[in-house]
Design brief:
By secondary structure, the chain is of the alpha/beta class. It folds into two domains: 198 residues, Rossmann fold, CATH 3.40.50; 88 residues, UDP-galactose 4-epimerase, domain 1 (Alpha-Beta Complex), CATH 3.90.25.10. It contains ten helices and twelve strands. A seven-stranded parallel sheet has the order 3-2-1-4-5-6-10, sandwiched between helices. The chain has a three-stranded mixed sheet with strand order 7-9-11.
Length: 318
Amino acid sequence: MKSEKDNLLYNKNVIVTGGAGFIPSHIVDNLVNRGAKVTVIDNLSEGKIENLNDSINHIEFIEGDICNRKLLEKIVKNAYMIYHFAGNANVPRSVDDPEYDFRNNIQGSFFLLESLRKFNNKCKVVFASTAGVYGPPRNIPMNENDPVNPISPYGASKLSCEKIGLSYDHCFGIRFLPVRIFNSFGPRQPRYVIYDLIKKLKKNNKKLTVLGTGDEIRDYTYVGNTAEMIIELSKLKNIYSKPVNICSSLPIKIKDLVNIILDVLNLKNTTIDFTGQSWPGDIKVLLGDNKRLLSLINYKYDKNDLVKGIKELVKEIE
């Protein structure tokens, strides 16, 4: 793998928790390309080792759980930066099994921060939070100063992690950056709306059943862009201690998204059936304000990324 030396990350010891997952595996690839020394810890309960195929020969991979305190205490001692993605990222599962969600998200994050407090409080932590912390929006688009009112156990657990992390930032000097990720999509995606729609259409292209009314609004960012933005933010000195939205601020209704996917698949006669109801904990409008993000890093969006990313994902799904 060709390395493009990054003066701030080159040869630095960097940990990615949950690094075999969808978004974090792209983080890993990006870090390796920058010349960082990357350690991935993942219990592979949801992540896939295949997601790391491009980087596996350039990283240290540890199959382990972040709820294992002894393991954490061993690996964090020399870390310069931790991108913390380990935990449950499935909203419906958090509703079905809140204990699983809280244990993996809150307890795991607490153990990580405690390990740093004891052994390496100079380490920086970038925490993968979610737009779900906002709950139903009071303002559209949602910005980082809006009230937070999560309506799912998943959103509540992520907000709890944010608050715990920021308290450790304040009390113990552990630099902590919550990045509130909206909707990412692209290669290696294991679930979520775009993946599920493509999967259904590959099984049956005559009829497509879609949860909700179709008027739900989402804000999609290509996963490679998500990874790039998070890493660029993490390099800034004065960004820590405040959340930042990771989003495109480009709204799209689910019914319009369905039509784009049908066009990519060249399907003309598919019957669309909207159920009228979505899953418990679903937020009808997820549209982020990215002004803070774009004031911090130099980044330009390509509106064609949605179609390009869908085409890439179509190739992966059987």
